[in-house]
């Protein structure tokens, strides 16, 4: 169950060969960290059977008390709860832990949000991943900001939750969901 950066040692036919008008940025981003090795930008782990499990983007990793925890791992643990439809997890600066885990959760139809459910979800994540991965904060929302293709826009959630500028949201399919984040926090 060792984990770390996903790297590729040999080229393949569909491999990214460069960035438009940015050859130096391409080299710096994908080829400079490890000699003659392509850095995919994802975090993965190898299980005891030799299979690789991609755990998410390397830049989407929380540092909680020195533990590297993937946002997507916590989101998957939350979504495995029978009352949860969707979840997005961000890191919030924390004086002692480095980052606190903050979860935004959309519940399934007919499920009412409550403090008891927040406690239940924290415990559920603790059982699934270990106590260190339990969210410090859980906020219930009706919807999460997504692109037109359905990808949750964690960057927008993080910016709104931390009171920062969201930047370009031209690919946002549901702008009303951004206000859900503002209301929640």
What labels would you give this structure?
single chain; 185 residues; alpha+beta; Luciferase, domain 3; GMP Synthetase, Chain A, domain 3; three-stranded mixed beta sheet; 5 helices
Question: How would you describe the overall organization of this protein?
Answer:
- The protein is α+β, with helices and mostly antiparallel strands.
- It has 2 domains: about 5-55, Luciferase, Domain 3 (Luciferase, domain 3, Roll); about 60-185, 2-Layer Sandwich (GMP Synthetase, Chain A, domain 3), CATH 3.30.300.30.
- A 3-stranded antiparallel beta sheet has the order 1-2-3. It has a 3-stranded mixed beta sheet with strand order 6-7-8, sandwiched between helices. A two-stranded antiparallel ribbon has the order 4-5.
- Helix 3 links the parallel strand 7 and strand 8 (about 135-140).
- The chain has helices spanning about 25-30, 70-80, 115-130, 155-160, 175-185, and strands spanning about 1-10, 40-45, 50-55, 60-65, 65-70, 85-95, 100-105, 135-140.
- Helices cover about 25% and strands about 30% of the residues.
CATH superfamily grouping of the largest domain: ANL, C-terminal domain
DSSP summary: helix tally: 5
CATH topology of the largest domain: GMP Synthetase, Chain A, domain 3
Low-confidence stretches: none
Number of strands: 8
Which band does the percent of strand residues land in?
A: 25-35%
What is the CA-atom radius of gyration, in angstroms? 18 Å
Query: What's the SSE pattern?
Result: EHEEEEHEEHEHH
Q: How would a textbook summarize the main sheet?
A: 3 strands, antiparallel
Count of domain modules: 2
Mean pLDDT metric: 90
Amount of helix: 25-40%
Q: Quick one: CATH class of the largest domain?
A: Alpha Beta
Helix/strand/pairing category:
alpha+beta
Strand line-up in the sheet with most strands:
1-2-3
Based on the coordinates given, report the CATH architecture of the largest domain: 2-Layer Sandwich
**Distance between the ends:** 36 Å
What is the 3D shape?
globular
